[in-house]
Amino acid sequence: MKIKIATWNINSVRLRINLVERLLLEEKPDVLCLQEIKCVADAFPAKAFEKAGYMHHAVLGQKGYHGVAIVSRIPFKKVESRDFCEKGDARHIAVDLDIKDPIRIHNFYVPAGGDEPDVTINDKFAHKLDFMQEMADWYASHKTKTKNRMVLVGDLNVAPLEHDVWSHKQLLKVVSHTPVEVDLMEKVIASHDWIDVMRQFVPAEEKLYSWWSYRARDWDTADRGRRLDHVWVTPALAKAPQSMTIRRDIRGWEKPSDHVPVIVEMDV
DNA sequence: ATGGTAGTCGCACTA
User: In this structure, are residues A168 and A177 in contact, taking their beta carbons and an 8 Å threshold?
Assistant: First the structure.
């Protein structure tokens, strides 16, 4: 069975519901994972999704900040979320798709980590590292590694490879690309033998971005991007991905998010 | 080296 999964940090789903509708029309994904919905579950624009044919919603909201959601044309068998670092933040939600060989989709919004990459003066950076360490510990404790059919997507707020940023050298001390974050992300990946799907399709020597800052004068010309959004699969699904698309053009839509959708087609 | 933009909620905080 073929399934198409999209992930997108939307930076307010209510403000940008028209962009979401346009993406759904153009790409017709089976499942859309959103981060930074920035609203509580009651304020989630459920009717717009239903109108577009997406009847199944798993929403973990929070007033004003963060918030993750999974909307789908395929029913869910199960919905779960984990309160990483026990702060009550809405940063993780997971669903089991109700298909013949079920797959579990994890949708993450990892803390951005603030500006200073120093845990002694920046609590937000400490929180980010703690969050990733908990991810590594949690996935290491999952049993039957090779049998688990799992997909992990989301805004992980780390660009791990040299060519996941516009300038490796200039970003070594910038939060999202520091060695301590990259090491921790490698630990998370190793914790469950995760496979970096985006890099299955684009070699590590090629630049690859999913985010361009709002603060740049001309994001397109300057092209100072970073790959903060990710799609990973477990070894059981290593051969499932058939295509990967980063919709860079959407950064040029009117009133865009600073992140663009990443879309993967899989044969599961 | 600095400051630049965006969203939510309310005039600060997070990104």
Answer: yes
Å separating the CA of residue A205 from the C1' of nucleotide B13? 38
pLDDT tens per residue, chain A (268 residues)? 999 999 999 999 999 999 999 999 999 999 999 999 999 999 999 999 999 999 999 999 999 999 999 999 999 999 999 999 999 999 999 999 999 999 999 999 999 999 999 999 999 999 999 999 999 999 999 876 656 899 999 999 999 999 999 999 999 999 999 999 999 999 999 999 999 999 999 999 999 999 999 998 899 999 999 999 999 999 999 999 999 999 999 999 999 999 999 999 999 9
State the pTM of this model.
Answer: 0.97
Token look-up 């970003």 returns A171
Q: CA-CA distance, A159 to A61, in Å (whole number)?
A: 25
How many angstroms is C1' of B3 away from CA of A18?
A: 31
A88 CB contact with strand B at below 7 Å:
no
A132 in Cβ contact with A13 (< 8 Å): no
Hey, which CATH number is domain A2-267, 3.30.70.1560, 3.40.50.1010, 3.90.25.10, 3.60.10.10? 3.60.10.10
Domain parsing of chain A, residue ranges: 2-267
A114 CB inside 7 Å of strand B: yes
The amino acid sitting at A147 is K
Which nucleotides of strand B are protein-proximal, with an atom < 7 A from a CB? 3-9, 14-15
